């Protein structure tokens, strides 16, 4: 890969800008714990929404989505339901409002607003452990992932002459990873949440320019050459089976579909939708997404942050993704996808960048993708620091620490987390499966307990603790027991075990103190099984008019998922020059937007 001087200068300018932002915002971050971890709750919602969307525009996810679109066509729009991508709709409609009303600094601190006594301590402990291990897993894999990505574009032969020591070939990605990690750590530790937001905005600007260029290049190529794809590739609709036959076009793709295990697509979709709905009802995991919601100025702005993410992220991201997929389909013979003697379709993105991105814009795109890594890395680091400092140091070690002590504690916690993640990254090849089990297990353990905490008054801290443990153990062991089976298909059994553990744990201990439950219900007013507590709150406050809006919220969730999905699909049809489907999908987007304006936006709290 040949980078020209202008490309190097653009990347260098971006890196210098991140350092400058960190230095410039250092004093602002040092004012207090809230200024460092939450930007002082003074950052406007549109900046936080742009930052959150930018942080989700990550390298590995983009590589995966390009591969999915290349292989599965418009049906790939459903596969991100695995994450689930529509959790942002649940957040936008009601969960962000509920979460922000708590006025806490971290998800673990939130536990004390819902539970009390020994149960609260158990719940607090396990959520801190969850957040820290999850953060280390993300940091370690982000570190090694960025190194491998950079190695494609900056061969070691170009750099080795300027490095005063030898680096073994297998550790070249680690060397690159350390370099770019240092930049992310610098601006994150110095400027806190505020510097993360501003660098995210810079990243989005870079990706926006590059994404538009890629999409336009692809549209010109489609207009000239057309697309040779299997029947059913150009529609998002599906039957019982996938039925995409690449035999006479690119036969190797059939093997990819078989290995993914998505052939029984209707069963896969139903399982994916069920899991996605449960995960979305549970609310956000304690990562950078939650931290940015807690950083908002009010519950109203928290909802607007989550609502803006889909509108900001989806059209631009999928315009770029569709551009790369179209170029890869048209000029497939020019791509180098062979790794270790086998075709690796996840190499489509870097190979397409190599072939099709013009000089100058290559520097912009690489700077944007590097920024995507650093944004996710810095956001994860900030969120994990919050748990170490706020929920361990300030809670158990030095509750009366001065701002100066808190500042150095944040720095120390951040550096310690990065060092641990770097060590894990160096051994990533050996512990890859183990770390994947940890992350998968933690997410699996999160669903039941974090659903019940919102919607069932009798659920207590002991139930929360055992529900997470009951999900964690099978999630970590099922890969041994059910070898070769997709995790998605073992999820119902894991869910059942976690539910049994949560209910048993709940009834093995007394209910949460009534005072805590009434305070929580009066402040949040969640819908669900809260009738006994609601009656007591109303008996004490006859004039209280706490309203729940279950039917309206579920209607908005349905419309919101349709809206978000259309935001994904219409830029694909635009790039592929499918005029009629493009206007139909765009019309659906506009219609859903008008409905949500009336049923969601106009009903948001005014404060």
What does it look like?
- The chain has a two-stranded antiparallel sheet with strand order 1-2.
- A hairpin with a 2-residue loop joins strand 1 and strand 2 (342-343).
- It contains 24 helices and two strands.
- Mean pLDDT is 84; it is low at 429-435.
- The radius of gyration is 24 Å and the shape is globular.
- Helix content is 73%, strand content 1%.
- The protein has 607 residues and is mainly α.
Q: Strand-residue fraction? A: under 5%
Helical content stands at over 70%
Q: Could you give a short account of the major beta sheet?
A: 2 strands, antiparallel
Average pLDDT over all residues: 84
Q: Indicate the overall shape.
A: globular
SS class: mainly alpha
Low-confidence stretches: 429-435
User: How far is it from the N-terminal to the C-terminal residue, by CA?
Assistant: 53 Å
Element-level helix/strand string: HHHHHHHHHHHHHHEEHHHHHHHHHH
Number of helix segments? Answer: 24
What's the gyration radius in Å? 24 Å
Which strand order spans the largest sheet, edge to edge or round the barrel? 1-2
Strand tally, please?
2
Helix-strand layout with pairing:
Layout: H1 5-24, H2 26-29, H3 33-38, H4 45-55, H5 59-72, H6 87-100, H7 107-114, H8 117-153, H9 156-159, H10 172-225, H11 252-260, H12 265-282, H13 288-294, H14 299-330, E1 338-339, E2 342-343, H15 348-356, H16 361-397, H17 403-426, H18 428-455, H19 461-481, H20 487-507, H21 514-524, H22 531-540, H23 550-575, H24 579-599
Antiparallel strand pairs: 1-2
Helix pairs in contact: 1-10, 1-16, 4-10, 4-14, 5-14, 6-12, 6-14, 6-23, 7-8, 8-10, 8-16, 8-17, 8-18, 8-19, 10-14, 10-16, 10-17, 12-18, 12-20, 13-16, 14-15, 14-23, 16-17, 18-19, 18-20, 19-20, 21-22, 23-24
